[in-house]
């Protein structure tokens, strides 16, 4: 078991897990999946198509006929990580196909790694398949190459990401995601529900709803109702909640209609958890970001959410050291955090990203100042987290089991998203537990980010 402090980068996906047998002579393809959980879903879709054509998934470089690297281009540091992963795949395998957000800049990739076989952009599944076919023709066996109804999943069997839309209509100056992934494109609600139903039928106990802007779901298609399901986040959340699995909402912008989700959480249809990218609190910084600048009003909304659903867990990420950020503006952020008392908080230091409009803003903050502010921010966030978790000692909570080993069971409460937030550990009487079990525990001990508890018998 290992403690899991909050991830400080919002652009890192959970590690993919490969667990499937390979038949003799079956061509194998490797996959390195970087980026956010939305990119992980893209990787799952690519591998599902490949498995349908008779390919196996190789867990290592040497056993693969080719390696697909699904890249991230959110930050310059993420781009560097993607280039490093491409280089490693080239060294270890030699046949590399690049896709994902960084694939929208093919010259950037080939300028560093000219030997890659192909470069495709995000969601260009057909081009990825074409490149794989050139590297290693498919060899399907219809008698044994059977796919589960859920397709290939890169997460543990008991939870799954459910992508409800692509793209984003926001024009935040620090972000180039809309340039790479396009404008908002919502999936029909009935298609989302059908996928969710298949996942739950296959044993998934937790659905993690993701998109670039979950609150805006359905806006681009006029909140269309089709086959008994309306494409609006409130309606979709209610429909998903009827399936009997935990439903967790990520990337929820604080639009006014978000308050309509809170009663669903109070009723138990949706987990009492909101992941909201506030980014900052000072109105002038938010204006320079080209984001809504109503931090004081947001505090009123938070108070209303907690009034209507006292158990709600609020998670957010923030940028420190944004161009032009003064010490007074940063102090406003700290004061706001003191008042908001968010449960789960991550932060990252501002970075220039090629193509972002924020690069051209005046008064960029020196790196040493960014570093100092980052540590001050995280010290405050840690203190808030520790106090909130200490208050849970002696309470009874429902948890979902993620992993069981010889040391104990690693679990999560309803307020913890996988591989992003904290854990609850059970180190006694855990032998009968299995991944995916939902059990009741009494909290015995609290740390800065994690809890320890005992099974309630």
UniProtKB/TrEMBL annotation:
The record's similarity note reads: Belongs to the methylthiotransferase family. RimO subfamily.
**Annotated cofactor note:** Binds 2 [4Fe-4S] clusters. One cluster is coordinated with 3 cysteines and an exchangeable S-adenosyl-L-methionine.
Its EC number(s): 2.8.4.4
Record the organism: Falsigemmobacter intermedius
- Which reactions appear under catalytic activity for this entry? L-aspartate(89)-[ribosomal protein uS12]-hydrogen + (sulfur carrier)-SH + AH2 + 2 S-adenosyl-L-methionine = 3-methylsulfanyl-L-aspartate(89)-[ribosomal protein uS12]-hydrogen + (sulfur carrier)-H + 5'-deoxyadenosine + L-methionine + A + S-adenosyl-L-homocysteine + 2 H(+)
UniProt xrefs under PANTHER family: RIBOSOMAL PROTEIN S12 METHYLTHIOTRANSFERASE RIMO, RIBOSOMAL PROTEIN US12 METHYLTHIOTRANSFERASE RIMO
Q: What is this protein called?
A: Ribosomal protein uS12 methylthiotransferase RimO
Write out the GO MF terms. 4 iron, 4 sulfur cluster binding; aspartic acid methylthiotransferase activity; metal ion binding; protein methylthiotransferase activity
Which Gene3D superfamilies does this chain map to?
Methylthiotransferase, N-terminal domain, Nucleic acid-binding proteins, tm_1862 like domain
